[in-house]
Structures are given as structure tokens and as C-alpha cells.
Amino acid sequence: AYWATLQDLGAEWDAAGRPADPDGRGRQIATALAELAGPRGLYARLSTVMAPGTSGGGGRVSGSKNAPKPVR
After folding, report:
1. Which of 1, 4, 21, 51 could connect to 26 by a Cys-Cys bridge, CB 3.0–4.6 Å?
2. Domain residue ranges of the chain, discontinuous segments joined by +
3. What is the dihedral of CA 15, 18, 22, 26, to 10 degrees?
4. Contact 44, 38 (CB under 8 A)
């Protein structure tokens, strides 16, 4: 019964019951997300140029190690 229902959904749905992607946007998004992950992905490469406590100018970032006191 489930398979017959999927067959009756029409051209706007694929065989798995997902909306069809005629313009390929879903595939483009999946490819972009896949480029972020992995040992050679964009996130992994980002860690090679950024480090905690540094800024682009080479100086230290101002701030505190403690949480601010609540103000009422």
C-alpha cells in the first residue's frame, strides 16, 4: 500500500517520497555542506589560520576569563 501511494504522488515527488529537485538546488546544497566537513574540509583548514586568543593584527584579544557579574 505504501509503495502504491508513492507511485501515485506524481512527478513532483521521487520514488523515496521526497520532493523532486528539478533545478538541482538540493544537490548544490549537499555538495556545499560536504565541502565543509572532513579532514580536508573548510572547517579543518580554518583551524590552521585561526587560533584562540589571537586577532588578525597579531595582538591579543581583550577580554576576561571570568563571566561578567549580573546587573539588575
Report:
1. 21
2. 24-48
3. -130
4. yes
Per-residue pLDDT band for 71 (boundaries 50, 70, 90) equals: confident
* Stretch 21-47: mean pLDDT: 83
Distances in whole angstroms, Cα of residue 57 to Cα of each of 22, 38, 46, 49, 54 = 47, 29, 17, 13, 8
What's the whole-number average pLDDT of the chain? 73
Residue 22 pLDDT grade (very low, low, confident, very high; cuts 50, 70, 90): confident
CA separation for the pair 50, 20 (Å, rounded)? 40
Q: What angle do CA 43, 51, 69 make, to 5 degrees?
A: 110
